[in-house]
Amino acid sequence: MSRVTLRVNGTDHELDCDVRTTLLDALREHLDLIGAKKGCDHGQCGACTVLVDGRRINSCLALAIAYQGRDIVTVEGLADGDSLHPVQQAFIDNDAFQCGYCTSGQICSAVAVIEEAKQGWPSAVTEDDHPRLTPDEVRERMSGNLCRCGAYTGIVPAVLEASE
């Protein structure tokens, strides 16, 4: 067991956990933040996506102890009080979820996708030096997040809407 201090959604949390505890398990089992889901537990589905220092990671592959001192944001930390984050609102407005299991990971990933594009980071389908979010760009950038229900027809427009 080790003492771990995690800064999650703007608040420091001290917890005692095994050094092998994943960030996902620390969030869900120690902090009761259940938005990030354990889908595949192999980093392949994206249901566990959270933001660390503004970048998206698969929290099922990350050891909690390695993220001390980092700014961790979960889907629960995106809203500002009763005001939803623009991506959260766009997912509702565009009916971008069905069962909802992958939605929190999709939303966290979409927040990062929008920021990556704003910062000019290219993707595998970027055609010039100034990436702009098109449906193809969104599909490529969100490809690490799987939806078994097939809500992609709502997810792509939601990301595009939120990026405006």
Automatic annotation (TrEMBL):
Keyword annotations from UniProtKB, A to Z: Iron, Metal-binding, Oxidoreductase
2Fe-2S ferredoxin-type domain mapped to chain residues: 2-78
InterPro entries, per the entry: 2Fe-2S-bd, 2Fe-2S-bd_dom_sf, 2Fe-2S_ferredoxin-like_sf, 2Fe-2S_ferredoxin-type, 2Fe2S_fd_BS, Aldehyde_Oxdr_Iron-Sulfur, Beta-grasp_dom_sf
Highest taxon of the lineage: Bacteria
A Pfam cross-reference name: Fer2
PROSITE patterns hit by this protein: 2FE2S_FER_1, 2FE2S_FER_2
Protein name, entry field: 2Fe-2S iron-sulfur cluster-binding protein
Native species: Rhodococcus sovatensis
